[in-house]
Amino acid sequence: MAFGATVQKTMQQLLRNYRSHIRYAAGSGICLTFMTMEILAWKSFTSIGVAFTVIYALLLAVLPLLPETASVGLSVLSVVKSLLPVLVVGPSDFWGTWYALGVLGLRRKPLIPVICVAANVMASFSGVVFGGEAPTVGDVGLACSYVLSGLAGFAIQKQTSAMRAQKERELSEQRLRFQTERLENLHVLHDRIAGELTHVIQRSRLWRSDPDVDPAAKQEIQDLEGMVSEVLHQLREQVIEPARRTLESIPVPEIQGSDGERILHQRTCAAERKLAALGFTGRIEIIGIDEFADTGQCLEVARMIDELSNNIAKYGRPGEYLFRITFDTDAVSVLSSNLTLQDKPSDLGTSGLGLHLIESAVKERGGSMDCNADEHEWTMAIRLPRDARPQ
Predict the structure, then answer these.
(1) How far apart, in Å, do the first and last CA atoms of the chain sit?
(2) Weakest-pLDDT range from 92-96, 155-159, 260-264, 279-283
(3) Spatial CA neighbour of 153 closest among 108, 206, 194
(4) What angle in degrees, to the nearest 10, is found between the helix axes of 215-234 and 194-208?
(5) pLDDT > 70: percent of the chain
(6) N or C: which terminal CB in the chain sees fewer CB atoms within 10 Å?
(7) DSSP class of 218
């Protein structure tokens, strides 16, 4: 039973090899066709010639199943036949040898194909080496044909590898584009949707503080504010932060030309308008962008503006704020200061997840962030090295 199972497993493996290497069957068939034509033409062979012919035919038949082993066997058979001191009368094995050397060059690393080619080249000059004969044009031509066969296999291998690498690069680019789109969608989700929810929360607080609003309506507004705050918290904690951790190893797509500065100015204007609508006075000042701005860091700073302005809108007390961004030769600095409703986000019942997201992004790029609360005033200072890259 064990022997039968082993035989069955071996046959199944050979069949799978044959199906996967079916392309080699055509070459073997062509070589066997030339051999058959020579047999029909010659009709008389020596006994050793018959033995070599049988081995040659078997190796060609097995080549689609075991291409490397059979190719080495055909190469060795050619060398042995050339070195024998007796005349071997039978069909030539040149076609099979050329084909075998090409297959080895295609499938193997250089060592084995080079050894097989060198052995056949030396064997083609056996008369010169062992018999002292002068090399003929035929000897040189045969040796060159062996070299060309191996080189042809190597060339096809390189071309195949290049095509495979090109396909892998295309697939990698597709995956990168898909992941980049997901990353950008994450930023939109965080920077825009979370920002709008924060805006709703702050507007509801302003409405609730209006003395003309009915007390019953104030209670409903407070309930609505609590529900929106909970949705914002769950969005950040259960969607945005896990997605950010998943995508944190994805490189930020490069921004061409002045697109980074344009995006930064767009986000700056949007943040200023949002804060002004909530009763905040001030402006976001950008220094050194024309001389020292890096397009990649413009995008990072734009995202920080979104998050920091959301924090000002959510935790800040309407009034004056300071927001300055400075691009310098070695770093970009962000300074934000505003009055707050309480000293700490925890006093308002929030986890400070937004600040955690900023801090994670800054530290990931080798920067630093300092945050200070003093007498209901929040100050935040961020510094990013100019050569910052995700770590």
Answers:
(1) 58
(2) 260-264
(3) 108
(4) 160
(5) 72
(6) N
(7) H
**Torsion from C-alpha of 175, 181, 185, 187, nearest 10 degrees:** 100
Which pair of tokens denotes residue 293? 């701005």
3-state secondary structure of 369: strand
Q: Please give the full DSSP string across 113-174, using - where no structure is assigned.
A: HHHHHHHHHHHHTHHHHHH-PPPPHHHHHHHHHHHHHHHHHHHHHHHHHHHHHHHHHHHHHH
116 touches 104 (CB < 8 A): yes
Q: Are 103 and 59 in contact (CB under 8 A)?
A: no
User: 44: which residues sit within 8 A by CB, 6+ positions away?
Assistant: 89
Tens of pLDDT along 220-249?
777 777 777 777 777 767 766 666 666 555
- In this structure, how many other beta carbons lie within 10 angstroms of the beta carbon of residue 348? 14
| Largest separation between any pair of C-alpha atoms in the chain | 119
**Structure pTM?**
0.44
The type of residue at 101 is L
Our measurement of the distance from residue 138's CA atom to the centroid of its chain's CA atoms, rounded to an integer in Å, reads 52
